[in-house]
From TrEMBL:
One of its GO terms (cellular component) is MCM complex. It comes from the Archaea. It comes from Halogranum gelatinilyticum. GO terms for biological process: DNA replication. PROSITE patterns: MCM_1 (PS00847), MCM_2 (PS50051). This is DNA helicase. Pfam families: MCM, MCM_lid, MCM_N, MCM_OB, WHD_MCM_arc. GO terms for molecular function: ATP binding; hydrolase activity; single-stranded DNA binding; single-stranded DNA helicase activity.
Length: 700
């Protein structure tokens, strides 16, 4: 551009500032450079002032920004103020681009675009050298070399003596700027049916660094650039995309992307008034999976979730429900879990093993994202699912690091990371829907679940509902299951044949009628909107009747264990779970009140879950210890008795207590030889007894 034109553009910006940003610049002048170093320009203001100038800014951002900043330096300010290195940052531009749809033919390279998503990774903030001062060790002359991204540039020769150094970088004479790199990934709600989220890396500099952390939902305005990929020294023909961030805004985490039209709203309200609303909801979850009505109902309640309560003392009770399916392989757990993605307004589906270095929670890692030197904070599944649902299959296979972070993540709904100078608290206000297999492959009904899955009791107790899924042959059930699976598959066959074989002998009506039978009752897309709408608008409160019903159920359960020696039936955690579930039940029909029916509905679910897992298999009593410590009371008693027995007997024999003798006496006191044998084996594994000689025992 010609000199005159440059001046003209600078003049335009000065005029613009005078008309629109007089006060803002005055404030910047007062706070510069320590508290504020940028003038933020709203795109709408610039457009109103001069549409051509605004569009030029979008299309030639690097040049226009220079004029805008030059104008800022020339702007008439009080004599003693200089805005030497102040930035001009444009925001709220009207060129929002989906991360996954950035393509060359859209002609956005080198231009200003805005992307929205969730911060998946963020490096810590580190100084970056922008101009290096090389001091010649022979003659002392300083050679200044501007540094851009990429490799560190060194001088070919000294500007003074023209020899090749040696040089030393003089830090005082060099210029540095704060820098940070983040990776922004598409928001989970933007994805349909399990698409892999796409991401873009963004470089941030100076005053906009350190503003966001992993897990934040952001909109970034910046210049789209391309960079040639390299593997070692080899240059590739393929380029990478990245952005230079100009401004960054943290967005509110609600389902902002979910648009609900008036027409949708009408449909939603109509459905909510249906007589069979609860049955219809259940029939809308994974229709290809036969049965599991209770589990599906629980999944629905989880999707709607309870109300997050803020107490006057500042504390908070989570409204999100956590649910676990434990069971035999091949019982449809994975299928049900993955269906969540179709109906949850925001969801993340992953396996316990995790696909990223952050796993399920979060991690501070040192990888090539931050030049290999910088630490990067990376958000895992539970953070990415913030305000949504995290479906985690094979939860029992999660990594040890996740295990310990999980307790806090589930109850306090945050994850604290403190490592290598990174101190961060990430939000994980999500519901966890987990699936796990029993430790020894198949489920054993006569063992407490705590011993059968690889999750520690403290973690298990955080689940509001735990369902056990056993796979036992039962001719009647098996027949119905077979019919259902065959029907679903047949519908799939018909559908596929019709699309691929033009001469298919099946008519469209035939296909439709079969397909209809296995289709969800409420269309998945509408259900997503329904759920989002309800969570946005319904904040139900308990009626007296609902409170009374829950109270009675709880007190009654506790009373069963009131006997001094009896196991404690349930803990207060269950009570909160009941409240959450009942609130969710009210939300299903868009009600502001938790009715007695809501309470009864969820009491039935909780009772049946407790029966499946909380019951001490030997006494038939509810035993919270089974759930919360993994060992039932009768089992603990037995272990104690047996240890005592062994120590008594070993007194009588020189070489330790003979196993046969121990089993005989155990039998005498009614324990049974088999049970005793099993417990001895466990004691031996735990190292509480050992064998000084074959078939002899000693206590430690
Ligand atoms: P899991 O994760 O419990 O090991 P999967 O979800 O992988 O089991 O299910 C295995 C297969 O069996 C799937 O193809 C699933 O559709 C089918 N299946 C299992 N149980 C059912 C059921 N109740 N109804 C329909 N299909 C089922
Ligand atoms: Mg599975």
């Amino acid at each position: 551009m010609a000199q005159a034109q440059n001046q003209e553009l600078t003049e335009r910006f000065i005029q613009f500032y005078r008309n629109y940003y007089r006060d803002a610049i005055g404030q910047l002048a007062q706070k510069y450079p320590n508290e504020q170093r940028s003038l933020y320009i709203d795109y709408d203001d610039l457009y109103r002032f001069d549409p051509d100038l605004a569009e030029d800014f979008l299309n030639q951002p690097d040049q226009l920004r220079e004029y805008a900043e030059e104008a800022l330096r020339l702007y008439d300010l009080p004599a003693d103020v200089k805005l030497g290195k102040a930035h001009v940052r444009l925001r709220n531009i009207d060129r929002a681009v989906d991360i996954r749809s950035i393509r060359v033919h859209d002609d956005h390279i080198g231009k200003l675009i805005a992307v929205s998503g969730i911060v998946r990774k963020a490096t810590d903030v580190r100084p970056k050298i922008t101009e290096a001062a090389f001091e010649c060790q022979r003659c002392g002359t300083m050679t200044y070399i501007p540094q851009s991204d990429g490799n560190f540039q060194e001088p070919h020769e000294c500007q003074g003596c023209e020899r090749q150094g040696p040089f030393r970088v003089n830090f005082d004479q060099s210029e540095f700027i704060d820098s940070q790199k983040i990776r922004v990934q598409e928001s989970p709600e933007g994805l349909r049916g399990g698409e892999t989220p796409q991401a873009i890396d963004i470089d941030l500099e100076d005053d906009i660094t350190g503003r966001v952390t992993a897990g934040d939902h952001v909109t970034v305005t910046g210049v789209l650039h391309i960079e040639q990929q390299k593997s070692g020294q080899e240059k590739s023909a393929i380029f990478d995309l990245y952005m230079d961030g100009m401004s960054i805004t943290v967005e509110d985490e609600e389902f902002e992307d979910m648009e609900i039209t008036d027409e949708d709203k009408q449909q939603i309200i109509e459905i909510s008034n249906r007589e069979n609303i609860y049955e219809d909801m259940v029939a809308s979850v994974a229709p290809a999976i036969y049965g599991y009505d209770e589990e599906k109902m629980a999944m629905i309640l989880q999707l709607f979730s309870g109300v997050t309560k803020h107490l006057p003392d500042g504390s908070r009770i989570r409204g999100d429900l956590h649910m676990l399916l434990i069971g035999d392989p091949g019982t449809g757990k994975s299928q049900m879990l993955s269906y969540i993605q179709n109906i949850a307004p925001r969801s993340v589906y992953t396996s316990g093993k995790g696909s990223s270095s952050a796993g399920l929670t979060a991690a501070a890692v040192r990888d090539d994202f931050g030049d290999g030197q910088q630490w990067t904070l990376e958000a895992g599944a539970l953070v990415l699912a913030d305000k949504g649902i995290a479906a985690v299959d094979e939860l029992d296979k999660m990594r040890p690091e996740d295990r310990s972070a999980m307790h806090e993540a589930l109850e306090q709904q945050k994850i604290s990371i403190s490592k290598a100078g990174i101190n961060a608290t990430l939000k994980s206000r999500c519901s966890l829907l987990g699936a796990a297999n029993p430790k020894y492959g198949r489920f054993d009904q006569y063992e407490p679940i705590g011993e059968q899955i690889d999750l520690e009791p403290a973690l298990i107790s955080r689940f509001d509902l735990i369902f056990t899924v056993t796979d036992q042959p039962d001719p009647e059930h098996d027949g119905k299951l077979a019919d259902h699976i065959l029907k679903t598959n047949y519908a799939g066959e018909l559908n596929t044949q019709r699309t691929h074989v033009p001469t298919s002998k099946f008519t469209e009506e035939e296909v439709n009628s079969v397909t209809e039978e296995v289709a969800p009752e409420i269309d998945a897309e509408l259900l997503r909107k329904y759920i989002a709408f309800s969570k946005r608008n319904c904040y139900p409160t308990m009626t007296e009747e609902a409170k009374a019903a829950i109270r009675e159920f709880y007190v009654d359960l506790r009373a069963k264990g009131a006997d001094e020696d009896a196991p404690v039936p349930v803990t207060a955690r269950k009570l909160e779970a009941l409240v959450r579930l009942a609130e969710a039940s009210a939300r299903v029909r868009l009600s502001d009140e938790v009715s007695e029916e809501d309470a009864t509905r969820v009491i039935e679910i909780v009772r049946s879950c407790l029966q499946d897992i909380g019951v001490d298999p030997e006494t038939g009593q509810f035993d919270a210890d089974v759930v919360e410590t993994g060992t039932s009371k009768s089992q603990r008693d037995r272990i104690k008795t047996l240890k005592q027995l062994i120590s008594e007997i070993e007194e009588e024999f020189e070489e330790g207590a003979p196993v046969d003798e121990v089993l005989d006496r155990a039998d005498e006191i009614g324990m049974g030889r088999d049970k005793a044998e099993g417990e001895i084996e466990k004691l031996r594994r735990k190292g509480e007894v050992y064998e000084p000689k074959t078939d002899h025992l000693r206590t430690t």
